[in-house]
Write a structure and sequence with these properties.
The protein is an alpha+beta fold. 23% of the residues lie in helices and 35% in strands. The chain has 2 helices and 7 strands. A hairpin with a 2-residue loop joins strand 6 and strand 7.
């Protein structure tokens, strides 16, 4: 079996793609953002939420790729202003779209655009999201 089913490993690989592009914004998983959900610290002016989930293989590809796994990635950017939020989203697109990750010596398919959410008000800030899928 060539896939790596541990979401944490995939999360770290995608985080590595995004980190330099969005600096100085910090990247967090849900439940880790300072100042939210009882977490210690002050709420940041800007941050990035990264979510990686395993998903079913498309039925048409399943027999051919049965030893592989498909993944869904969502990157949500949060900032104090709509324009800064849009800028962060564009930085994520430039860092992630059509890139590949390598885990345990196996290269993924390109991270393919799935869906995007435009910047909109979100609890006193603005947030925008973009998601991708890939197979490893």
């Amino acid at each position: 079996m060539i896939h790596e089913p541990d979401e944490r490993v995939h999360h770290e690989a995608i985080k590595a793609l995004v980190t330099a592009a969005v600096a100085p914004a910090e990247i967090y998983a849900h439940g880790e953002v300072p100042g939210i959900d009882g977490n210690e610290g002050d709420l940041l002016l800007q941050y990035v939420l990264l979510q990686v989930e395993r998903m079913p293989l498309p039925v048409l590809q399943a027999p051919r790729l049965s030893a592989r796994t498909s993944w869904w990635v969502q990157v949500r950017v949060v900032d104090t202003g709509v324009h800064n939020c849009q800028r962060l989203q564009q930085l994520v697109i430039g860092a992630v779209e059509n890139e590949r990750i390598t885990l345990a010596g196996h290269e993924s398919t390109p991270l393919t655009f799935d869906v995007a959410e435009a910047a909109r008000p979100d609890d006193g800030r603005f947030s925008a999201a973009i998601s991708y899928t890939y197979t490893l």
